[in-house]
Amino acid sequence: MTTRAWSSPTGPRRRELLGFAAVGLLAYAVDLALFTSLRGPAGLGPLTAKALSFLAACSVAYAGNALGTYRNTRVRGLRPYAAFFLVNLAGAAVQLLCLAVSHYGLGLTSQRADTVSGAVIGMSLATILRFWGTRTWVFRAEGRVGSWTG
After folding, report:
1. Contact present, 150 and 12 (Cβ < 8 Å)
2. Alpha-carbon distance 123 to 125, whole Å?
3. Smallest Cα–Cα separation from 20: which of 141, 135, 124, 137?
4. Contact status, residue 20 vs residue 46, Cβ threshold 8 Å
5. CB 8 within 8 A of CB 1
6. In this structure, how many other beta carbons lie within 10 angstroms of the beta carbon of residue 15?
7. Are 53 and 38 in contact (CB under 8 A)?
8. Cα 118 to Cα 108: distance, rounded to the nearest angstrom
9. Mean pLDDT, 10 residues at a time, over the chain (150 residues)?
């Protein structure tokens, strides 16, 4: 594929990025809403609530990507969902690592520093990892193995 397709407003890579971002925003909204509901009205503990909201958000993101962004790739069975879940788990680990390094390693302990390291820097790096992992290991197209150059 040429670089023209990438720079074109209707190019396939632009559609892929926009679709992935839209699905990610929807999954984030599900995660946040469910976590808030499970912590508040349902009265669950923070780890249980987060685990359940994470699972629900992963399922929404997988369905959105399978039926939307990557609908032209044929994935079947449990393996693609398991790979998707692992990619998202790795993304969550990146976010936690950024927060841990900032808070405990660098001593930046304010709420603002925690938000920037976990929700801005960590989320940005995790999103890049999730995008790459999703297109490389979950929704592989023929002739493409994650590279943006060909």
Report:
1. no
2. 6
3. 135
4. no
5. no
6. 14
7. yes
8. 12
9. 47 89 95 90 87 93 94 87 95 92 93 88 94 93 50
DSSP 8-state assignment for residue 143: T
- State residue 142's pLDDT score: 57
Alpha-carbon distance of 147 to 150, in angstroms, equals: 6
Locus of tokens 């699972």: 55
What is the biggest distance separating any 2 CA atoms in the chain, rounded to whole angstroms? 53
31-34 long-range contacts (CB < 8 A, ≥24 apart) are: 31/56, 31/57
CA distance 99 to 111: 11
- The alpha carbon dihedral of 45, 51, 55, 58 has a sign of positive
CA 51 vs. chain centroid, Å, equals: 15
Token pair, residue 19, equals 């679709």
The DSSP annotation for 72-139 comes to: TS---SHHHHHHHHHHHHHHHHHHHHHHHIIIIIS---SHHHHHIIIIIIHHHHHHHHHHHHIIIIIS
**Number of helical H runs and strand E runs in the chain:** 6, 0
